[in-house]
Amino acid sequence: MSMSDRASNAAEDLKGKAKEGAGKATGDEQLEAEGRIDQLKAGAKDKVEDAKDAVASTFNDATDDD
After folding, report:
1. Please, which of 2, 17, 42, 64 could form a disulfide with 12 given CB 3.0 to 4.6 Å?
2. Distance CA 22, CA 11 (A)
3. What whole-number distance in Å separates Cα of residue 59 and Cα of residue 50?
4. How many domains is the chain partitioned into structurally?
């Protein structure tokens, strides 16, 4: 996973945590839910990138001519 993807996902997760916290503090259930959704999206993106990395690593190991 590229560092920019990691940074982007981390930023989205932080944004989600901030929204969720603000929603809880103000009693805004919609904002709180949006925050949780942002966090879930960031986590899902991380999982997709981890899977891409695993496939690439497996491919590289299989085609390595050591």
Report:
1. 42
2. 16
3. 14
4. 1
